[in-house]
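User: Round two. Same drill as before: sequence, then structure, for each protein.

Assistant: Same drill it is. First protein:
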Amino acid sequence: MQNLISTILVAVDFTEKSRNAVEMAVQIAARHQAKIILLHNITNHAIIDRTGKHIIGAETINENYQKIQWALKELEISLKSQYPVLEIQSVIKNDRLVHGINEVVDFESVDLVICGSSGNQNIAQLILGSLSYQILTEANCPVLLVPEECKKYTFEKILVPIRVLEDLSDKVDLSIAIAKRNKGVISLLGISTDEDLIKIKEAYERARTTIAIKSQEYQSQFLLTRDKATQISKFSEDDDADIIILNYKDEDNWKSFFSENFLKQIINYTDVPLFFLKNKKEKSKNYSEDNVGFDITLPHPG
């Protein structure tokens, strides 16, 4: 069977949600015989005044680097003691987080980025964008968001919504591969509005045929609704799903800055891991190559 997940990058910041994401990463890597890259990013901060930009606390950067290097080494040793056959590598970046992730994604041919998610976003995160949401929208490969409270690391019930047509065959192949690695069952959920009913229904039937031909156990259902994110979340709860496989496609990107689009809705209202399939050929844009976390602009005297 083709291994669709060979290299996994997991973002590490030593918080509880990060530790949970690492546990998920090693469990998936063990099933897929995949390499793991533990990535921690050190972000600089700067002040801008009339003389230019000045890094705050530049003298402590080397000290912080050494502390993080030691902490990652301890984590690596601990993981290898539990999973001795796994290939594990540690990387430290001093960059904007997602830019650093994408450098490693490109250089190491990463197949999946895993990061922890806290669930509901507060108003500041809604305005500024949570880190997990930034990783999801800007990473140049598929992303798995792992809720902090999730403690099940096998995927015996795999929910696969059919709601858009992009990369559908890749999504079905991935779902089958995950199901076989976990001895799992696929729940195929066709979900559409009146406007796209015919094309989604046809795609749903093609997916059912593919899964049946490949002798994968599955069950299926079709829903007609305009509120896709809410219905997918509700179905995942009713079905006791262990993971949801989604296309990275935001159907509601026309909504205002303060409104919840499909991606934010599904993240906020779903408490199981969310696997977003992204076409690696279509790279997300990286906004800044600067490694400064934020700037404080000071007024000119007088």
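Second protein:
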Amino acid sequence: MTIAAVIITKDEEQNIGDCLQSVRWADELIVVDAESRDRTVELAKGYTPKVFVRAWPGYGPQKNFGIDQAGSDWILVVDADERVTDGLRQEIHALLAGGPPADIGGYEIPRRNYFYGKWIQGGGLYPDYQLRLFRKTSGRYDDVRLHENFVLQGRRERLREPFIHYSMPTVHHHIRKMMRYTTLGADEKLKRVSHISGWAIATHHIGTILKTLFTRGGYRDGVHGLVVAMFAGLHTFVKYAKAWERLNAHREP
């Protein structure tokens, strides 16, 4: 059975080389770039001729386009800031060589998330299973603006070996990413609600911090875990505040 690695990119010149190097063993490498303004496309072409540049339609549609370009039996979706470890590569090779059961549509892969140079094991960030390895014919991504889902046909199982995910290399990077994601999150929130109270903003903000730090064990990661928990609460607060602002933008003062 053959496998294609699919990566979507936007201004990822710092990551794309190491990412593609980690999946160079795949039968196909497919990069779908959203009109990057840096050297992402140039660097990607050093690894594969299958580099496609197109306007950004959303996470799900962009990944679906990449899947459609593959001629392989199986698809491995990798983010540009992720790396496939040797252990994961070996596990995937052994799995496909043995022939997965016919009723299995895909596999969830654990992910080690690194924040500010440290692997965060608490706060609900590990094992962080992601459905990333699947038969090409087993489904499609939906069109949710944030946290798109792969709608799988068939049974799923889990692999043991993880991705490495350099999610937030610096606090500055975290802030920039948070501002983009909270806008998308507010858009999704407004599809489901027509009113946001001050009580909801406050309780979700504080509740997220406490849940991340204590219920999910973020305290075990020391100061790193504290910073992650505070950012998680801030993310929730900003998302709700943006949604609240939009709901009240056109109302009379």
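The chain is about 40% helix and 25% strand.

User: Perfect.
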